[in-house]
Amino acid sequence: MQDKLQEVVRKLLAEGAVDYFIGYCQSSQPYRAVPCFVSDESEVGKLVWGPLCGQNLSKYVLRANELDGKVGILLKGCDTRAVVELIKQHQIERDKIVAIGVPCQGQVDHRKLGKILGVSLEQVTSVQDVGDEFLVTVGEETKKVRKEEVLLDKCFRCKHPSAFGYDVTLGDVVPFTVDADAGEYAAVEELEALPIEERRAFWRKQFERCIRCNACREACYACYCKECLFERKTPRWLAAPPLLSENEMYHLIRAVHLAGRCVDCGECERVCPMNIPLGSLYRKIQKDVAELFDYEAGMEMDTVPPLVNFELDDQDPFM
Amino acid sequence: MPKTRVGVFVCHCGNNIGGVVRVPDVVEYARTLPNVTYAEDNLYTCSEEGLSSIKDQIAKQGLNRVVVASCTPRTHEPLFKRACEEAGLNKYLFEFVNIREHCSWVHMHDPAMATEKAKELVRMGVAKACHLEPQQEFESDVFPAALVIGGGVAGMSAALGLANQGIQVHLVEKEQELGGLIRGVQTLFPTEQDTDELLRPLAERVKAHAHISVSLGSEVENVSGFIGDFDVSVRADGEVEGLRVGTIIVATGAEELKPVDLYRYGELPNVVTQLEFEEKFKSGGEIPRSVAIINCVGARIPKRTYCGRFCCATAIKNAIWIKERDPQARVYVLHRDVMAYGVEIEEFYRRAMELGVRFLRYDVESPPEVLGEDRAKAVKVQHQLMGKEVILPVDMVVLTTPLVARDDNGKLSKMLKVPLGSDGFFLEAHLKLRPIEFSTDGVYVCGAARYPSNIPESVSQAYAAAAKASIPIREGLVRVEAITAFCDERTCSACGNCVEACPFGAIELQQGRFGRTAHVNTAQCKGCGCCVAACPSGAMQQRGFSDMQVLSMIGALAEEMTGGVG
Amino acid sequence: MVSGSDSPGNGFEPKILVFACNWCSYAGADLAGVSRLQMPPNCRVIRVMCSARVRPEFVITALSKGLDGVLVLGCHPGDCHYSEGNYFTRRRGLLLRKLLEFVGIEPERFQVRWVSASEGAKFAETVEQVTEQIRALGPNRPRSEVLGTEPGDR
Q1: Residue C112 carries which DSSP code?
Q2: pTM (2 decimals)?
Q3: Cα–Cα dist C87/A318, whole Å
Q4: Cβ neighbours, 10 Å, residue B268
Q5: How many whole angstroms separate alpha carbon B427 and alpha carbon B450?
Q6: CA C138 centroid distance within chain
Q7: Cα C97 vs. chain centroid, distance in angstroms?
Q8: How far apart are CA A61 and CA B138, in angstroms?
């Protein structure tokens, strides 16, 4: 698959079909791949594909707006949802992108891997997909790890690709299925089941740890605003110090901004240096948007965002 | 940047505010607020004295923001804004704080808390005022024509009122004839003249008038636009015509309540309403020998608390009518009170008594009972004054019912964006100070559409509505209040939320200096703020209700909630 | 002093922010005043032209800054002066209520109600009810954790 990918990209660059290609390559940390931008055929050999390519590259397509030509990008099924939304939200034209689709059999959550192995991830030298399992090389040893134990949460919910049509596919891009007990919104429901004071205590503890590094915002495809609400001086919505009251506002406001836009890519939680379970917060938003407004972001091309839309018979408990 | 200099004027409103809120304390408090240069109290800030003081202090103190804390902006804001303008201060640098309707009048038993609340509201108002910016109003032409909906007495009088000024009027009437409610009435009180004597000349003048075009059998189907430029679709005979008008008068009248389930109406053939009586008997039927007229049927009861106002006069009129044709007839008027107000109605009432009409008072708790099997034969009633039950043998029972709001008021109210009151009649801008007009500019109401009214009342209101509706047309233009939305194109990311959110289609994504950004068509913007709330970036803002301004109020309110941090 | 103490049932009086739309609910509030309907003094009204102007961020900010409750009042659905505004308010209200509850903020602290221009009594009832509900819940957050600066410092 990796070879096939490199072949396709080499061709795209040679023909001048794209100005550069956005994909994954190996990093100094072998337990995960990182985004990479290849503009010359000589660099194509860097490109990799495998179970360490969990990151959503979609946001990078916006760079194409600065170019006369197009960009190529490797998009997993789940990643296409973000691109669909970027097109709907007028951020990029479809024809600025040459999208390569690739069949994905699940991506590794490096935090879960670290926990399972019980060793420092620095010692992992490779991870290979062998069907139902991953073959993980740690130092000299090779271990078999069952996929369900180390997959990214979103892989359990794979129902992609969306309405997005690829330009090239490296195989059948179909939803990946794995037997899992967890329900669609398990983490959310677990929290919803707690008494309200416990929930408040839980989230206060989480928000207190936030250092307002803004990584979640930077990683999020939907946070493309030229000037973020939180950067404004008039008004200044948040004070700079990462105090609980300010952090709470930050996360709740971002969650509301993502209502109808969150595509469940999981980047926010993945990049958070403080391990705040942002996934639960954003799954909650997705759950409510689905249940209240029958809407899922990134699945269709011509739907109206739910919070600038309405039905005459929307629920109305507000008499 | 000139320093912000806020002047605060706190009103006593006689005793209305001053009797509960300690106004001097509020003034003193205002002086402590940041950027407040000057504060004073007034007995009536809206008086000549108060307004002069505002103007004087603007000059003397070099004020560049004015805050008045008094009643409700919905009445006096234009007055204070004008005062600011006259003193050379842009009128959008004015902020109104409500410490009467929202404070002194509703916390009468807690002067201490009312005073604290007034102080906080002033603090919030001052905070907002500091962030207000001068604005210029957008001017829009007024199309020189008016629409009158309804061709009854009110509608016709309003149409003539406008047309006689040379203004083109479109009169739209649902029925096939002009006249409205009084077409069903044979004679009028207290003159007892034939309705036709009044109606025919009126309708003729309307039909003959060069500036009135009458559409009978027509209904308004859709209204869009705003004052000065309304687009109206009128349906007649299956065809739809488009009209363009500058102002609209609602004169759709009301309906007589049919008292189903009361006094065996609908069950017995000789139990009728006043209008039915007029129709069946006043144009040549056998005059009943003995009639009980029951007043307040379906009025002044828990379900419908209002008084029909002129139905007593109607009852008296018909009682007299019967007696004049048959002095031997027995006529009883069973009432709960006799509402005989207005010119000559009290004399009318006396005349009825002199003619031998018997007025009997009953209690709402013990209403009369209609007796009889297949016809009403008698009425049993607890005679309040006599303190005993009497049985009155009758040939007919006439039920006096109030006017009720028409069923299609709801549809029309939505089309015109004007509210209905709790009884379904059209609700004016202010109970006392702004009758005839609505909060929505350019739409006016007269006649029974707003409340049951008799002919002189309906005609007076019609004249008033015509006068009001002619003003924008005479002035030729309206100024759109500068509370419209605008996009900071430098920071707009063209996500398109605002375009979807705008109920008026006033926003478009356009290529501009800063790339593709949202742009608001100010002429179409109604100033609702839907777009602002939908903008994740904060690039879209509303003049006079910006995020900065609202947040400053929230911050001012929450000021004392802070504790040790920061 | 409005907030007497830090715990419910101890002389605690909540401070509640109310957004009222110019055409319906603000007029309804005025009518309540004209009718002299007495109510508890805990609410502070901010006038907006339409309830749809109320962005969720205002509610979140108000609660984060320590206010004990936020009440958004608008026209009855179908009667919005701007045709559609309150439909957006309704959707935002539904979503925000659930989100706030999810992070542990009691649902009574953020409420949306429809009050028309003729419903002075309903306005008074609503103020009474909501004040009572929030009073029973106690303060939203201890003063010690609310920052003492405001957005856009002068």
Answers
A1: E
A2: 0.81
A3: 12
A4: 19
A5: 7
A6: 16
A7: 12
A8: 41
- How many CB pairs below 8 A link B and C? 199
Chain A CB contacts of C56 below 8 Å: 253, 256
| The pair of three-digit structure tokens given for residue B437, joined into one six-digit string | 């007009």
Instruction: Check residue A182 and give its pLDDT.
Output: 64
- Answer whether C129 touches A (CB < 8 Å): no
User: Would you call A89 and B492 a contact, using CB atoms and an 8 Å cutoff?
Assistant: no
* Dihedral Cα C4, C6, C7, C8, nearest 10 deg: 40
Go through the domains of chain A in sequence order and give each one's CATH number. 1-105+157-180 (no CATH), 182-313 (1.10.1060)
Residue B551: phi and psi, rounded to 5, are -65, -35
Instruction: Render pLDDT for A31-86 as a digit per residue (tens, 0 to 9).
Output: 889 999 999 999 999 999 999 999 999 999 999 999 899 999 999 999 999 999 99
Question: Can you read off the two tokens belonging to residue C106?
Answer: 């009691």
- Single-letter residue type at A281: L
What pLDDT was estimated at residue B414? 85
For CA atoms C96, C102, C103, C109, the dihedral sign is positive
> Which residues lie closer than 8 Å to C121 by C-beta, 6 or more apart?
C32, C35, C37
Could you tell me if C147 lies within 8 Å of chain A, comparing CB atoms?
yes
- Looking at domain C16-146, which CATH architecture does it have? 3-Layer(aba) Sandwich (3.40)
- A83 vs A100: CA distance, rounded Å: 12
**Cα separation of A272 and A207, whole Å?**
12
What type of residue sits at position C135? R
Closest in B534, B537, B551 to A226, CB measured = B537
Residue A206 CA to residue A208 CA, distance in Å, equals 5
What is the distance between the alpha carbons of residues A112 and A116, in angstroms, rounded to a whole number? Answer: 6
Count of pairs with CB atoms under 8 A, one residue in A, one in C? 117
A149 and A116 in contact (C-beta within 8 Å)? yes
Q: Do B562 and C146 touch (CB under 8 A)?
A: yes
Reported ipTM: the value is 0.94
C134 to chain A nearest CA, in Å? 15
**Phi, psi torsion values for B199, nearest 5 degrees:** -70, -45
Cβ–Cβ of C145/A245 closer than 8 Å?
yes
SS3 B229: strand
Domain boundaries, chain C: 16-146
Instruction: Tell me which residue in B101, B417, B545 faces C48 most closely, judged by beta carbons.
Output: B545
Contact state of A235 with C101 under an 8 Å Cβ cutoff: no
Provide the shortest C-alpha distance from residue C112 to chain A (in Å).
6
Cβ–Cβ under 8 Å, residues B498 and B534: yes
Whether the Cβ atoms of residue B485 and residue B542 lie closer than 8 Å to each other: yes
Find how far residue A112's CA is from the centre of its chain: 17
Q: What are phi and psi of C146, to 5 degrees?
A: -105, 130
Q: Nearest to residue C24, comparing CAs of C100, C116, C104?
A: C116
Using one digit for the tens of pLDDT, what is the confidence trace for A223-255? 999 999 999 999 999 999 999 999 999 999 999
Residues of B in contact with A310 (CB under 8 A): none
Specify the 3-state DSSP secondary structure of A155: helix
For B419, the closest of C3, C117, C147 (CB atoms) is: C117
